[in-house]
Amino acid sequence: MHLVAIERVNVYERDAIKSGIIRLLAPLGGMGAFVGPGERVLLKPNMLSAKPPEAAVTTHPEVLRAVVELVQEAGGVALVGDSPGIGGIDRVAERSGMLSVINETGAELTEFAESVEVSGAGTFKRFALARPYLEADKIINLPKLKTHEMMTMTCAVKNLFGAVVGHAKAGWHLKAGADREMFARMLVELYLLRKPDLTIVDAVIAMEGNGPGSGDPRQVGLLLAGANAVSVDVIAAEIAGIPKKLLYVEQVAARLGIDGADRSTISTAGLSVDEACVADFRLPHISDVQFGLPPFLKNRLRHYLTSRPCVMPEKCRLCGICRDACPPHAIEIRDGKLHFDYHACIRCFCCRELCPDGALDVKDGALSRLIKIFL
């Protein structure tokens, strides 16, 4: 059985978070069960972009602080690393409040700059992953529980996509991002290359709606932890009430028989799932109404069936971040306006994820809107 611990913590107060994480890890054997003296332990928070903690875009700095201190108390050397979606790691760490924690605790901020190519054993034969991620003695995964416009939920497994360095993420979106199930398969295969030793989820304040960068903070008041990241995702999704048909990563993991995907093999400690459940957790505004169409027809009708990003001119300051981040280069600035090439757009929503001003919205395709009227 895979054990997932659930603990109630309602505020990001320093002592409350640390004592909450100690209680959280107790059923799993405490931090000492995962970290040995002298081990270099990479902490992998969500460092998507340079947003303040209250925006709920990144892992909260007090969660990071508590884990760093517990790693150090167990004799480990704490490293903090990620590859932000936009902006340098120093800027993101500073704006998110993590840099002050790193400086105060004596942890080491580790930039994911150099990649190492590793062989995959599934559909995707080669991955280039950050050297510090591969070479750390132990990895502690520190995701934020958020909605995600492409994968519906980003939590334990999706957070590991940060091991892909910088602009290589755009390449993966271009290669696998046109199909949600294919992208989910890539995430699962990446996870299998180097599984984290421990996952601790920051869900004290989660993100609902149009996450992972443009959603709304939602008080949930929970911390979750487990040694198996897939099992942690299964329980997190159950707590948020997300339908299984929308959990692309978990569906792929179950089809592949990945350890931890079968709910019957997961037990919980601390709060029960029923006690932890969140009512009316708002999901992203996504639609992909393709009804199992054959590929040749799906490709022809995709523009009319799927949701797509669109600009809100009153908020857009034409900074060009979305244009530069777009994997298929489907965005351009022309005549003082933002223009989308929807036939090239792969609906990965990287533009919305990285827009610093929340200036991009989602619009249903014409046939999709019609279908919703009559359903």
UniProtKB/TrEMBL annotation:
- Is 4Fe-4S set as a keyword in this record? yes
Q: Which residues form the signal peptide?
A: none
Q: Which organism is it from?
A: Geotalea uraniireducens (strain Rf4)
4Fe-4S ferredoxin-type domain: residues covered: 307-336, 337-365
Question: Known PANTHER family for this protein?
Answer: 4FE-4S FERREDOXIN-TYPE DOMAIN-CONTAINING PROTEIN (PTHR24960:SF76), PHOTOSYSTEM I IRON-SULFUR CENTER-RELATED (PTHR24960)
Single GO molecular-function term? Answer: metal ion binding
Identify the domain of life. Bacteria
Task: List UniProt keywords, sorted A-Z.
Answer: 4Fe-4S, Iron, Iron-sulfur, Metal-binding
InterPro entries listed in its UniProt record: 4Fe4S_Fe-S-bd, 4Fe4S_Fe_S_CS, DUF362, PSI_iron-sulfur_center
Instruction: Please give the name of this protein.
Output: 4Fe-4S ferredoxin-type domain-containing protein
